[in-house]
Amino acid sequence: MLKWIIRRRLAGFERAYDYDMSYAHDILRASLTAFRRFAGILGMAEYHQDVPLAAWYAAKLAATLAEDCGPCAQLVATMGERAGVKAADLRAVIAGDTAAMGEEAALGYRFAQATLRRDAAHYLGFVGGESVAPAALAHA
Q: Domain check: are 59 and 126 in the same one?
């Protein structure tokens, strides 16, 4: 019964975002326990506490682009736009044009770039104190 519910939710996500979740279906077929662990990671990746959405989605999109997954980047951009992030900010992140980004999107983008370079000295320069962990989870 639980697998049936999960399959329906995956299918709904696929329809809503025009995104292929066959890898998640494969995990579910192999092991419900493995799928639940995988789903836990997805839940963690959605956590952003007090990080502004534009910064969070810019960081998430920049990290996704660095992994060179076109469908994944399209998914993040679509999710960002549906969450209310300005399309112009998302386009600027895709182009790597910080001058065209709003202040919050540029902050998230620069944070992601520093993270991707493993430039730890700059982490706290971009977001202070308690915002570091939620911003870092945008890369998960």
A: yes
Taking a C-beta distance cutoff of 8 angstroms, is the pair 125, 111 a contact? no
Instruction: Quick: pLDDT tens for 46-88.
Output: 888 888 999 999 999 999 999 988 999 999 999 999 999 999 9
pLDDT tens figures, 8-31 = 999 999 999 999 999 999 999 999
Domain tally for the chain?
2
Q: Which domain holds residue 17?
A: 2-45
Cβ neighbour number for residue 82 with a 10 Å cutoff: 10
Buried/exposed 44-77: b ≥16 CB within 10 Å, e otherwise: eeeebeebbbbbbbbbbbbbbbeeeeeebbbbbb
- Do 118 and 76 lie in one domain? The reply is yes
